[in-house]
Amino acid sequence: MTTLITGGAGYIGSITSRLIRSTGRAVVVLDTLENGHRKAVGDAPFVQGDIADTELVERVCREHQVDEVVHFAAYKAVGESMENPAKYFQNNVTGSQKLFDALSRVGVNRVVFSSTAGIYGTPEVVPVTEQAEPRCESVYAETKLMIEKTLQWYSRTTNMRHVSLRYFNAAGAATDGTLGEDWRFSQNLIPHVMKAVMGASPALTVFGNDFPTPDGTGVRDYIHVEDLATAHVAALEYLRNNGDSVTCNVGTGFGTSVMEIIHATERVTGKNVPYTVAGRRAGDPAECYADTQRIQQLFGWSPTRSLDDIIASAFAWHSSHPLGHDS
Ligand code: UD1
Prior knowledge:
Elements: E1 2-6, H1 11-22, E2 26-31, H2 38-41, E3 46-48, H3 54-63, E4 66-71, H4 78-83, H5 85-106, E5 110-116, H6 139-157, E6 161-167, E7 169-171, H7 189-197, E8 204-207, E9 219-220, E10 222-224, H8 225-240, E11 246-250, E12 256-257, H9 258-269, E13 275-278, E14 287-288, H10 293-299, H11 307-320
Parallel strand pairs: 1-2, 1-4, 2-3, 4-5, 5-6, 6-11, 7-10, 8-13, 9-14
Antiparallel strand pairs: 9-12
The chain binds uridine-diphosphate-N-acetylglucosamine.
Uridine-diphosphate-N-acetylglucosamine (UD1) binds near residues 118, 169, 187, 218 and 220.
């Protein structure tokens, strides 16, 4: 039997796809390649196409004997989602609903979904638990919450079961240096720190140093992308063992500030990170990090990579791939 991986040519999807294959499972990757890269798929079976193409999804499921899905395919740029909400509702929400409908028709009833801690917005309490009231501050986050809810209704009304994984800040690259994120298309902190330390930008802009945090800069929970990948493998295993539908945080449980990231980068790379301080970015919470008890208890999962591993792998990847997989 085969695991269908939507968005398996993207950053997290490609690293997870490779890990799932290494466990002995067959996979098939479905990706439009609008943002993903063919090279990231490697020699895994690949179909270029859209999750909203129900006929295609049904055919792929039948031809490859798919019995479970990891659903990554989505647009993920927060800023763009506020400028073009229709694009996000259409692709992420409508596309996912069509995917689930096609899966239902062909009898595929186990889904692991790539959700986000973005749905917590500015949490009232940290570490934040899955029970916290969602307070989406972007269309992007709202689309992920809507997909979670769609899956919850499928669970109640059909025999489909799911795990929604709420990622905190995915970071780093594959340890072997062959897969990672394209920094040309990322707005996230670590790719920007890497640009600054390698001289690919004049300096990092630190968005605010007047937050109510120990050093005044924003605190987040950075989780190594390979640890995220192992969480998906654990979630698939849980569903295969008849686990009930559930939503889980995936983070380390520790908060790290922007200044701590800068200092760790300087220590790991032996180079200076030039930076300037600017005002806060709209919508940025002061602190957001995960309560990870649920995923630890249910799946026996915990992260094994350190912040230094994140930085060292990101540095190795970006140094050798300044144009991502086009390098
Ligand atoms: C962002 C998204 C979130 C998404 C997540 C993972 C926003 C508001 N949130 O989270 O929905 O799920 O990415 O893709 O965009 N920072 C700087 N300078 C920079 C970039 C970032 O100081 O050039 C700071 C930020 O203010 C923040 C921290 O670094 O304190 C992390 O930022 P980022 O990597 O963009 O992630 P989030 O904002 O947490």
